[in-house]
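User: Fold this; tokens only.

Assistant: Input:
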Amino acid sequence: MGLFRKRRADEAAASSPAAPVVVGDDDLDRAGWLPRQFEQAIGSDSAVRAAVLAIAEAGGGPSVEQAIMAAARTGDTGIDRPWHWLVAVAREAQRRGEHELVAHLALFVGMWMTSFVPRLTLGDCQDMRLSSPPAARLGEIYSVALVEVPKLDPTTIVVDHPTGRITVEGLLRMCAVGALELQRGLVEPQALARAQTVIG
């Protein structure tokens, strides 16, 4: 039953991928619309679950059966693969100067951490193939977001939805709060400085 358990950030901080994740055009294409699908699904539980599952599957998230087989074969369940994929996509989007893509990735991560992680159950993690991210991966995503998102106009609307509107300014605050909650050393210095400036 502990296979997909929700882990505390300090337990997950040392988690690292078995091999570097390499992403290409197809990954960025998928990452370009999957988070937007998630954003538009907010308000419908079944649609949100389907959207999260699609993101997790794009990142290689295993089913329960696949995780058990992987653990028996390699000792690694692979449940963190989607987070390694999201980091790799964010890094590649940063390299290409795709600031809007980074913004939507950051919004997904921020919403997952604030609205979903506190209520995740084992069944949720199994159904959606996504659990709490390793703190180190979370720090990497926030590090990219806090450097790249400020390059957009702060009044730019990232998502406009019946449940609410989020601008670049609001997204930056969300990322800054999340980054400052992580333990020292997990967020890159430039991003940490930005977070401190945003929060004031």
